[in-house]
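Record 1 of the preview.
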Amino acid sequence: MTDGFNLLDRPWIPCMRAADGAWEELSLRDVLVRAHELREIVDPSPLVTVSLHRLLLAFLHRVFGPASIDEWAALWERGSWDPDPIDRYCERWRNRFNLFDPTYPFYQTPAVDASYAKPVAGIVHGMMLGNYLTLFDHSVATDPPALSPAQAARYLVAYQAFDVGGMISYQSRHGEEASVAKYTKAGPLTTSAVALVKGRNLFQTLMLNLHAYNGADGLPFHFTDDSAAWERDEHPTPRERRPSGYVDLLTWQSRRVRLLPESSEGNAAPVVRYAVAMKGEQFPAGWNPADYEPMVAFRKSLKPRDGMPPWFPIGFQEDRALWRDSLALFQSVSGQSARPKMLDWVAGLAAEGPLGYRARFALDLYGMVTDQANVTLWRHERLPLPAPLLNDRERFELLQEALALAERISTLLVNGDVTVTGADGKTRKIPSPLRLFAQTLAAPDDAVTPSPATVKSIAESLKPSAVYWSRLAVPFSRLVSELGGDVDGDPLARWALEIQRTAQAAFGGVIHSLDPSARALKAAARAERAFIRLLREMLTGYLPAREEETDEPAA
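->
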């Protein structure tokens, strides 16, 4: 089939209008020309959402640059993009944006053999997490779900960035060696929390993430001969190579994909039920993404494995909200962590004038969690992003102290030990109040020592720390906003009070949720006394004096 679906003209990018909040799909060209009228791009999958932003950024870099802060400022002050250079670029590369072009299908490799086709659910791997089991159930293998061209295009863009690694199809009947093409590395963003600075509308969002584009000056890194995936005459092959430039990185073809459109009864547009996916281009051993990828924060590995980069991307964890690692997002710490280079760029824009020192935005983070080749969840988190927090070390150190305090208090809520300092100044470890509760519940007779496995099972079934961290998310966002403005009074004292109330509610909620048996009441009373004493000691010096004197029981 050669029926076209040109992404420059046909609606396929899901957007929300700024004026009325209504949702509509727009073509790539219309999204950019109308960006100032749109609030944001929004897809049910965070992976699709951030991948579409990166695609649009690559397009904009090839049209507008900008090569310097001055060029960037001129674009920003205009408030919208001039459609003429966009249209000229569209006309030049129009045939490369046809999703079903026989020679240069968008983001695909036509040479892969159709005999290796599998249900198109394979390229939706992780992008439709809610339907994961249905899509991969063997009962639908003979009648796979059909994607519209718009859906297929969105998932295709995200698949190139986020596909998990492992075994993949290879053309065994056509000369490809298994050792070369059967196994593939994960996509470039699979393990990363990808950061996107958000403005008041889509134009601002894309501009804030439109880093200066000048390879000669090392912006965002050194390169000489860059090109987007659609500008290349040669198709991807299963080889290792370094990105030729920043736009090459943004449009990296980690997989050789071929969508197989077919006619749909009663529908003029084709549908996609099958696709071929094979190993594409891979980064070579020794290539360090921390030196190049500007939308991800990195942390230094203490003991890097052989052949692995010395810095690893900060990503999502199933049982840990990303805001707890926000120090690595807001500022870099030499030899320990590196914030996204995009935030270096935004910090410079704020410090040097175009945005203003007190500018305020939001920081969205997108990604997923995998277990080997399985996607367990995807996630989208949002944090306030006040520019002063990016440039002011004193404000950053206040945030650092606030997070450290929250982490210390959390040790009261897990099955472990708490480090305390005695009157003699020496530190020692004692059981946490949660462990004490579990020990007493398991063996109310002090002469009996419960088994560690039983204690661990009881403690882990209660999980007050999960409640504690989830309830601190909103107060933490308030703290970040406060530290980015005119700091009034003592923000750490207010934060400590939030921690106290939240920890008391979380701990009290679980220990008083059990049946009111004599055993449970004894365990609760003993653990609560220890909890209140330790909480007061840990918060000494942070709470206002009247709060430190309060001996309020957990509830």
